[in-house]
Design goal:
Elements: E1 10-15, E2 35-36, E3 39-40, H1 41-51, E4 56-61, H2 66-71, H3 76-85, H4 88-99, E5 102-107, H5 114-119, H6 122-125, E6 130-133, E7 137-139, H7 145-156, E8 159-165, E9 175-181, E10 187-195, E11 206-214, H8 217-223, H9 235-244, E12 252-256, E13 261-263, H10 267-280, H11 285-299
Parallel strand pairs: 1-4, 1-6, 4-5, 8-12
Antiparallel strand pairs: 2-3, 6-11, 7-13, 8-11, 9-10, 10-12
Helix pairs in contact: 3-4, 10-11
């Protein structure tokens, strides 16, 4: 199978997880709707896709995820109240999410892993390359990772994954890549991938983070991918197959990201992300930084 070189226009966002690390907050509220300052985390992800030119967004959801659809839909009653009050600022902010992109939704059904969630997108994506954005990773808009990944795919074809150097002692929390260099400092050729290896077995300290630009050939590979770690269909295993045999629809390249990334999948990192983003806001930052500085000095 040859790699497709079509331009990318579609983004897939898996959002079927239960968010158990944030219980009880996520008992009735999807983890993707937890606020990061004053926007739900999922809106940052959709905004990133749109900024990269991907205005067709498919969200792969599960049970109790209806608030995601409501957030990106119109709320005519609320809009009318704000319009009658003459509150144009809040009206604009409410309408932002519903005007962002053309949104589509599909239910994953059984929670069979990230690879299965991506496979659920096949009827919508078809025979086109597409991007996958995981909601736990927020990429600062000043560091256009997805645009860089699209450019690498334009040059090399196949699939492109985002990689980030991590402390070798933490590599067991990620997928790890075996790589070789290219003529571009931030681009590597991927020869192997291992999902959550032990520290001793990790091929490198380059961790896969939640951004992928995938050739549609990945769907055929996923259909033949047996459940792996945790009894789930792992996207990493399918990408490993593509990297090992580029004739299936490869090659696989990686972009080594050295920009600003906010991890909202861990409670501590979620809080740190809120503080960092709030400090950088023009409307909140000055007062918040003053308060934070005084608080830290008092507690030390």
């Amino acid at each position: 199978m040859t790699s497709s070189r079509n331009r990318i226009s579609k983004a897939v966002i898996p959002a079927a997880g239960l968010g158990t690390r944030f219980l009880p907050a996520t008992k009735a509220t999807p983890k993707e709707m937890l606020p990061v300052v004053d926007k739900p985390a999922i809106q940052y992800v959709v905004e990133e896709a749109v900024t990269a030119g991907l205005s067709d967004v498919l969200m792969v959801t599960g049970r109790n995820k209806r608030p995601l659809e409501d957030h990106f839909d119109r709320n005519y009653e609320l809009e009318e109240v704000l319009r009658n009050k003459g509150d144009a600022t809040k009206l604009t902010r409410v309408q932002e999410s519903s005007d962002l992109a053309t949104m589509h939704y599909v239910r994953q059904g059984d929670p069979k892993g990230l690879g299965h969630a991506v496979l659920c997108a096949e009827p919508h994506v078809g025979d086109e390359p597409f991007a996958v954005l995981l909601g736990d990773d927020l990429i600062d808009p000043r560091d256009p990772l997805l645009a860089r990944m699209n450019a690498v795919r334009d040059e090399h074809g196949g699939s492109v994954i985002a990689l980030m150097e991590v402390d070798p002692e933490t590599i067991h929390l990620y997928g790890s890549a075996s790589v070789s260099g290219t003529d571009d400092e931030d681009v590597v050729r991927v020869s192997g991938l291992v999902e959550k290896p032990s520290v001793a077995d990790a091929p490198s300290n380059l961790a896969i983070i939640g951004r992928y630009v995938l050739d549609p050939a990945v769907f055929a590979v996923l259909r033949d991918t047996a459940p792996g770690r945790g009894g789930e269909i792992q996207l990493t295993d399918a990408l490993q197959a593509l990297a090992a045999d580029p004739s299936l629809g490869g090659p696989v390249h990686g972009v080594v990201f050295r920009g600003r990334r906010y991890d909202t999948g861990d409670r501590g990192d979620y809080l740190r992300a809120i503080v960092r983003l709030a400090c950088e806001r023009e409307d909140l930052g000055p007062d918040f930084r003053d308060w934070l500085r005084a608080y830290v000095n008092k507690e030390m």
